[in-house]
């Protein structure tokens, strides 16, 4: 009899979510540091390319506005090129989340990587029939949708596999490695998405912006191309191999996880919903500092300065997550962000003056950094580690999709808030009263309703879930991937 089967039969009741188990089988594997860490890197680092390809389109839109003001500026093409990737991302999160659990972590991840590479290259080389601009913009819109599929696939495939692979890292460092290879990569990409175009525009000059936008998009395909080799060598995470489900008892899963999923999804929704309004500040003080007549590269340089503020927050949050736990770090970080947001809102009238803009930039940077310390770093980690391995892809993918929906809703709600404000000052203040209040509410939800996440939570949560399924009469002996002996493969 398989010792694992004997152990399964002894599980009759599932332990509380905040208890700690003594055994940590993933940490006992005889592997070097590189053997433990490179799967986490290979799984998560693709988010750099995701972030770059998502963020750089803002710069490309600015270039299109300059190149084709009559055809593009304020047109339906401008809206479609900017937003269609969002729709693809949501579809990708849901579809690849399903495939990640039902099919394979590594194969799903490989498919998303190929999609990123192929459609990233097609975006950079988009041409219309007979060289028409409308044809080019239509082609770019289609390519951006499919690119969004690949971006969405990285979340439930790449981040989930990174979380499972991080379980083999040294205890006490697992959360930081997950964050450094996921959210920190996104933050690095946000810096690159303005720094790289600035360098490209300086190199090409503003008389050659047609070449500049293609180069900016084309550079985004290099990271997924470089990851293809590493991801071809990936094996299924050990935890996934042990816990993979072949038959999914949907109703039992919903009964066990609906409350926890709702909390994670709601926090993610509010975080992305609020992020839209936070960009108002940066646009306001950028206008004060550089004005309307500055060269494009100057604007991109200041955008880089803004985005750099994310990095220290993400780095600090990665270590705080290990030291204080993801739940506490998320709650404290988002609460402090909300508090600073309220202070900034009260000081908003000074934003229109050159006298205080320097101090305001510093406070705004602290504000952005706190967002990364809290939900930026930890909401994805909580989504990945508050559920069992067999359904992690779908749990994570649907929660992340709710975040994207929140961002989409925010793009429509906040302009209405601004439009209905009684005066110009309130137009800047009202969105931030709403956003800061949501930050504080998110802190309340996280602290009181999210479970404690330990270093060994993935293994522990799988044990809880197995025990629950057995208690409900589900046959857990069918779970896992059975290795086929080499001699059997040769006969076949």
TrEMBL record:
GO cellular-component term (any): plasma membrane
Listed transmembrane segments: 76-96, 108-128, 184-205, 211-230, 250-271, 300-320, 332-351, 357-374, 395-417, 432-450
Bias (Basic and acidic residues) ranges: 1-10
Membrane topology: Multi-pass membrane protein
GO molecular-function term, one example from the UniProt record: carboxylic acid transmembrane transporter activity
Keywords: Membrane, Transmembrane, Transmembrane helix, Transport
Domain Major facilitator superfamily (MFS) profile span(s) in chain numbering: 39-454
InterPro entries assigned: MFS_dom, MFS_sugar_transport-like, MFS_trans_sf
Stored PROSITE patterns: MFS
Subcellular location: Membrane
Main location: membrane
Region (Disordered) residue spans: 1-20
Family, similarity comment: Belongs to the major facilitator superfamily. Sugar transporter (TC 2.A.1.1) family.
Protein name in UniProt: MFS general substrate transporter
Source organism of this protein record: Aspergillus heteromorphus CBS 117.55
């Amino acid at each position: 009899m398989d010792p694992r089967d004997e152990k399964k039969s002894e599980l009759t009741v599932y332990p509380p979510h905040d208890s700690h188990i003594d055994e940590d089988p993933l940490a006992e594997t005889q592997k070097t540091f590189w053997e433990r860490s490179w799967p986490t890197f290979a799984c998560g680092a693709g988010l750099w390319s995701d972030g770059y390809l998502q963020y750089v389109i803002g710069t490309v839109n600015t270039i299109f506005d300059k190149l084709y003001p009559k055809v593009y500026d304020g047109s339906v093409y401008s809206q479609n090129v900017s937003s269609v990737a969002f729709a693809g991302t949501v579809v990708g999160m849901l579809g690849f989340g399903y495939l990640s659990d039902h099919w394979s972590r590594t194969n799903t991840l490989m498919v998303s990587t190929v999609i990123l590479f192929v459609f990233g290259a097609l975006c950079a080389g988009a041409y219309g029939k007979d060289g028409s601009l409308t044809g080019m913009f239509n082609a770019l819109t289609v390519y951006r949708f499919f690119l969004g599929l690949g971006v969405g696939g990285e979340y439930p495939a790449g981040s989930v596999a990174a979380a499972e692979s991080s379980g083999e890292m040294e205890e006490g460092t697992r959360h930081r490695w997950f964050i450094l290879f996921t959210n920190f990569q996104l933050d690095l990409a946000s810096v690159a998405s303005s720094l790289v175009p600035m360098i490209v525009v300086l190199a090409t000059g503003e008389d050659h912006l047609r070449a500049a936008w293609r180069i900016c998009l084309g550079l985004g395909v290099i990271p997924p191309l470089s990851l293809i080799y590493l991801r071809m060598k990936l094996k299924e995470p050990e935890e996934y191999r042990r816990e993979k489900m072949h038959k999914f008892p949907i109703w039992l899963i919903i009964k066990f996880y609906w409350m926890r999923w709702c909390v994670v999804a709601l926090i993610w929704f509010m975080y992305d919903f609020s992020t839209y309004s936070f960009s108002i500040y940066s646009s306001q003080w950028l206008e004060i500092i550089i004005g309307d007549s500055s060269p494009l590269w100057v604007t991109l340089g200041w955008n880089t300065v803004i985005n750099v503020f994310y990095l220290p927050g993400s780095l600090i949050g990665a270590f705080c997550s290990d030291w204080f736990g993801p739940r506490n770090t998320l709650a404290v970080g988002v609460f402090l962000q909300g508090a600073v947001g309220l202070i900034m809102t009260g000081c908003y009238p000074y934003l229109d003056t050159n006298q205080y803009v320097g101090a305001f930039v510093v406070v705004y940077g602290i504000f952005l950094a706190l967002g990364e310390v809290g939900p930026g770093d930890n909401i994805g980690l909580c989504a990945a580690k508050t559920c069992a391995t067999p359904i992690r892809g779908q749990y994570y993918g649907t929660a992340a999709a709710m975040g994207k929906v929140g961002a989409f809703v925010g793009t429509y709600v906040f302009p209405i808030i601004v439009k209905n404000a009684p005066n110009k000052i309130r137009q800047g203040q009202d969105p931030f009263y709403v956003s800061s209040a949501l930050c504080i509410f998110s802190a309340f939800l996280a602290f009181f309703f999210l479970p404690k996440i330990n270093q060994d939570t993935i293994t522990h949560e799988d044990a809880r879930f197995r025990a629950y399924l057995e208690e409900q009469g589900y046959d857990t002996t069918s779970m896992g991937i059975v290795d086929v002996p080499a001699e059997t493969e040769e006969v076949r």
